[in-house]
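From: lab user (bench 3)
To: helpdesk
Subject: output format question, protein + adenosine-5'-diphosphate

Hello, I'm new to running complex predictions and I'm not sure whether the block I got back is the full result or only part of it. Here's what I submitted:
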Amino acid sequence: MEENSVENNDCEICIEAKGLWKVFGKRADEIMGSDLRNASKDTILEKTGCVVAVRNVSFTVKKGEFFVIMGLSGSGKSTLIRMLLRLIDSTSGSILVDGEDVLKFNKKKLRDFRRHTTGMVFQYFGLLPHRSVLDNVAYGLKVQGVSKEKRYAKAREAIETVGLKGWEDYLPSALSGGMQQRVGIARALTTDPEILLMDEPFSGLDPLIRREMQDELIELQDKVQKTIVFVTHDLHEALKLGGRIAIMRDGKIIQVGAPEDVITDPADDYVREFVQDASPAKVLTAGGIMEQPEALLYEWQGPKAALHTLRSLKEDHAFMVGRDRKLLGLVTMKRLKGLIQENGSYLKDSMETDIATTGPDVVLEELFPLAAEADYPIAVIDEVGKFIGEIQISSIFENMIQEKTEGNNGRIS
Ligand SMILES: Nc1ncnc2c1ncn2[C@@H]1O[C@H](COP(=O)(O)OP(=O)(O)O)[C@@H](O)[C@H]1O
Ligand SMILES: [Mg+2]
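Helpdesk reply: Thanks, we reran it on our side. This is the complete output you should expect:
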């Protein structure tokens, strides 16, 4: 797949689903063959006892794209993502992967497709409880018949990639939820699949760990550049991760677009409602996105010690605090060098005091004007002026809308 048009893989299509339906129940074919298929989910259930889980869904996912399917519980997300692997047989429609019709695959081809082309990560990790982390991760290769030596080597590599080096010999139960899901991700990565399918992988984790895992997944994707189909019911997660987002309701995809499109131009009231209270700019706070700075300078330090700190941490500037971590100002490398040249001995004399500050509970939206003016990070201080963190200007915009990968801003519906 890679030999042709390496340059042009922005527009290369990896997955193409056309007119997919899934009707659960004995009378599925009968429903599909009649006008009844256009009736509402409730009506069909009432009249036939069948459940329409996915209704005439079409979408494409480009190579290397991070494609998010978002919707409330019961909207058909799991059914849809499982149909892509034929873990659930579709009632009607077609699925092309790299131009090949998955629904026409024979048994062997399907098995290869599941083992080599795709990797799946589930909400509840699905780890083998009595096998070590290493064996769990190597499992996919074992069923492929890869030799022990080779599969362990690959598994160790994947374990390192997800940050679990040192945990190879533990049982899953010794690991926290977040770590167990890393094992799940490592397992999906060992076979080096082209496509990663993830069904609410972080939904079982508590919010802090969840954010961390999302950040790590973004980093991981930068490294491995897979085509990812990621299912979530969480709009924040979708906005953060998705290059494009497909929104599902009652089995249908009702909007596909980049995060901005979904926020600024919701397709209908359902999406609007979803998005309304949830605009990250209105929800995320300074305290939620702030970080601890690498370098922090103290009032009582001499200029040369400060210079040493900045140099060794390769920082161009740092906030300066006094007793009780009270924020005093910002010291830049340039000013500091000036001070040293003039033989000054008080760090305070090289300090900028005209700096942007904010409180931890201020929402992103209110930080925009500050961000537009600021040359340096924004300092977050508490009610008594104590320095509690800093916000890089770029992270304000990144948190607002996760940067799209190039070429993902077209809509397809
Ligand atoms: N095996 C099944 N048999 C009957 N109905 C099912 C089955 N699996 C899912 N459903 C129904 O299909 C609809 C979509 O379910 P699902 O795909 O699990 O949604 P989601 O993942 O978005 O929560 C729901 O109404 C659900 O009850
Ligand atoms: Mg589900």
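A quick orientation on your result: The chain has 17 helices and 17 strands. Let us know if anything else is unclear.
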